[in-house]
Amino acid sequence: MDWTNEIAGCNAMCSDRALSVENRRDCGPRRLGLRAWKCIIGLAGMLLIASAGASPVGPAVPTVVCIDPGHPSEVGSGTSGRGISEISAAWMVALRLRTLLQSQGLRVVLTKTSERQFVKNRDRALIANLAHADYMVRLHCDANAGSGIASYAPDRQGVSGGRRGPSADVIRESQRMARLFHHSMVAALGGSIADRGLHSDMSTKVGASQGALTGSIYSEVPVVLIEMCVLTNRSDEAFIQSERGQAKLAQALDRGILAALGATAPRPDSPFPAAPYAPAPRPSAPRRSAARPGARRRAEHSAAGKGPASSWAPPPPPR
Q: How far is Cα 169 from Cα 221, in angstroms, rounded to an integer?
């Protein structure tokens, strides 16, 4: 039903200016009032019919994913291999991942507008919070004597800059989603790079000193950090520096995110099989998206007349 045309038609029918000179002689106030009431009753009936099959929770709210390409930040510019830096690797994979997620109808927010933009870790979390993201995915590269990909999620509160966080709800959801995310991501990689496992923020140097990573402490949405490779390992560096490796990582991250969000069915265009696990069944609901914490916040934000929450963009880089 084209509601715009219906309303426009009623406005025209109920307006003296819309009547011809000949019709105006026959159209007194009583007849014009009757036409107006018919129009109002008709529109009310159409609204009732349209709403009869609608979900009581309202329209579905699009899923929002915040991608955080790591560094530069207050802790420095990250690590570097012989041919590529952590900043460049994270940025290039982030752009590929954004394209994949957007092609499936998800809204994507980046924490940076350019590769070398300086953004503090607390501000990166703030960007995800303001966007009411359903998931914050932080992309980094490691530097140690090992090899492979690893994921990190908060399992307890930490303290940074006088703030204690994240909340118990964020910790619980981060842990639940990280298990789904990491399993599906590793399955999608198919052994292209070693699996170093899923760990707590406490396994990192910063997390051990604070209780959690700064980006987790300030996050009000579920969050996971991925060390996509060990950049000081030549084999890992060659993998992430190649077009094939970046594409493989982006596709695997995409699969992990979809699994964490509950969309585990394989896509027709995906070169990977479905992840070999069965997530626990969830209570049936007319619209699952409205039950997500981020979706609820965005729906409330919109209902308050504040506009789409995900339209916020980070400030331009300092000159």
A: 9
